[in-house]
Every structure is written in C-alpha cells, then in structure tokens.
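Input/output pair, single chain:
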Amino acid sequence: MFEIDNSYFGIIIILLQIISVISLLYRDKSLRSQLLWIFLILFTNLWGVCLYWLITLKKRSKADSFSLKKYGAITNKCDDSNIPAKLHQLLNEYYIKGYTYNNQKFIQDNKSIFKALYTSIKSAKKSIYICSYIFSFDKYNALLARELLKKKTEGIKVYIIVDAFGTNTLLSPFKIARLLYMKYKGISIKAFSPLTKGLATGSFNQRNHRKMYIFDQEICFIGGANLSKDFLSNQKDVWQDSLINFSGDLTLFYANLFISDWNFIASKKQAIDYIDYKATADDDYLCAYPIPLGPDVYKEIYFNVVSVAIARADECVTIVSPYFVPPHSLLEIIKNASLSGVKIIVIIPRTTDGRLMNRLNYSYTDEVKKCGVDIIYTKKKVHSKLVLIDHKFTFIGSVNFDYRSLLINYEVSSIFSDEKIVSEVEGFVNKLKSDSVNKTDGYTGWKIVDKATRLLSPIA
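Output:
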C-alpha cells in the first residue's frame, strides 16, 4: 500500500536531473565547470542533484539585490585621473561610480584597529552599523560589546550582522546564548545565512565575509579585521590585519550596502530605510570606487575589474592575502603578466589556519614562481587583503585572493588612488617584506595531491 513504484521514482530523478542541467546551462560558469557538474548530476543520480542545489552560487532575486544603479547614484560623481581609461570604462559599465571621501587613514596593526573601533563606538551619537564575519566573545570583543550595550541604553540605534558559519552560531550553545543576551538587551543582531535559510534559498555555500563598521552614517571602516582577539590584539600567533577609515559620501554607499544586507535577513518590521542623499563634496575631497561582491550583485564585478587591472598593469602588481588560490583564468592572467615583464609580487603567510589551505597556497605559488612571480612568505599570519597596481592605486577590502572570496562570498572592496593611502599601503608592504622567510618548511610538492586538493577550493 505504501510502496513507491521504482519506475515513478526513476522518472522523478530524471526530471530533477533535466531541471538541474537546464539551470546549469543558464548560469555564468566556465565550460569546464559546467561539464563537471553535468557529469555529477547525470551519473550520481540524486546525490549530484542535491549537491548542485546545495553548494552552487545562487544570485539574489532582483527585489533583494543591491542596485548599484539606484542606490549607487549620486548627483556629484567624481572621476580619478589615476585610474586607467579602459578600467574606468569598465567601472562605468558596471555602474561603479566615484565617491567622494576625506579624513582617510590606513590602520596597519591590530592594537590600533581595536583602539579606533572602541573610540568610534564611544563617540557615536545616532547609529552604529556593524557587519563582521566573526563576532567572538573574548576579552577584547567583550569590551566593544559592553560599549555597544551602553550606547543602546543611550537611545542610539545599534545593528549587527554576523555570519552564522564564521561566528559558529549553529553549533555553539555559548555563542547562541551570548547573542540572545544582546538581543534581550535591545541590540538588533542577526546571523547571516543560517542553516535553515541556506537550505531553503540555495545559499548554503555562501558566507557574508564583509567587514563594515559604520558610525552615525558619517565614519566608516572596511578591510579584513573581524571582531575577535585574533584580529584586535598583538598577542602571539594572531592574524596581522589592517582597515581603512574614511568619512564622506563613500560612507553613505557602505551604509546603504549594510542596509541591503540587513533587510535581506530581517523581517519587514525590522527593515531599515535606505539613505537618500546628495553629494556634498568640498574642494579637498578625494575619489574612490566601491566594489561590492556577492550574490546581491548581478555580475562578478570585482573579479572582472581586478583581472583587467592586473592584465593592463605597466610596471608592477603586489598582491597581499592570507590565501592565494585564484580561479584558473585569473591565474593565467598573473602568469602572462609576469612573463610579459610586469613585476608581480605575491605576499602570503608561511602558515595559515590549516594544512589544507597551506597546501593550496603552496600549490599555486609553486606554479606561478615558474613564470617569474616573486613569492614572499611572511613569518606572521598576515590577514590583510590588498592589490597594489603600478604604485598608482590600490584595492582595499575584505576580499581574499581565492576562489571563494572572488566568486562566492559577500565581500567589499574599494579602489583608492590618493598618494597618502598608496604610500601608506606601500609602507605596510615593505614591513611585510622585511619580516619574511624565503622557504616553506616541511612542504613536499606532491603533484597528484596538489591537483586533487584544488578541487576543494570552492568549498575550502
């Protein structure tokens, strides 16, 4: 009575496979990736279908996406002559406009990052927006959390977005209890992409890796630092990180981006209104180009822009990242740029946070070294994410130089070209070079293991 005819079950599987393949053909994936997925879908039956819908990148609906054309439009756009004309044209095609900013500072060490954030929280008068991949409850972040609770009692609006996987709110009862306590005290806090929503929306493999700290919609910090002692202290074996701090209309862009993320995971009653504003630049303003990445943006804008920037570099490119696991097309651009005479420098830590990532890093650096790319391994675990082009402009944000950050995660980055920031970034790079080693201890380049490990890069 309750038995299911195997023939009907087989028909259902075939229909699911057909739907999955059709969906795959409409996705903007490489031919190699499409062929691999088609093989898995057709020859592993239901397992391949389930895996496809669980971990492949799914863009948000148009209603839930961040509209660069709408919320990115300001009346007084600025242009930057330091940005090459062709790159400028590409930015315009993606509705990436120049935004005015000033009072900029590149913060280069963890202790200074903590001090700057702590001071900004204490000084806030109207609102605080925090988006952090990791939100820990150690003694350093506890000090920040205590000030946030105080601000809430003063009537200041406090909104916090954390990533459920990065903060481990899915498996840690302690962290769940602490977040609930902050909610009980009146702080608006949400975990991004929890397990149930991930399964329901096809975003199981996506992470909100953005780091945005915005105060009174006037002061903004972006970069690599999470809210944890591993990024806010100078203790031994912590990550070495950086943030950039600025004010001006660029801050309002990131405030709207935060609001978009918040409204996506909050109920309608908890939604925040977007900011309607006009540019108010004075004579000494500077110009930057903010580039959001992720399923809320309709194209892989950052990936395309940074690829063009590297391919069109005239003299040198410096890449700073904890991970160097670029997609194949970007890897080829780097190799060809080096072979054509551009000096390419990749700065990564000697050891990261696991054997898998270490092996992935060494696998890719070993390949590009054969094409003349200089690899610098830092003694400390560098966590900054920077791309410096021709000593003229730099990308600063949360984007690791790996497959997941470039093509899957929610991320932020901006292009800065003012002399002060470029000079400070170059000084930071020189410090990393002076505290480096020339070899990778204990690494054995087993090619078959390296090739197999690369298959895990989209989910590592």
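The first strand starts at residue 99 and ends at 107. Residues 301-454 form a domain with the Endonuclease; Chain A fold (CATH 3.30.870.10).
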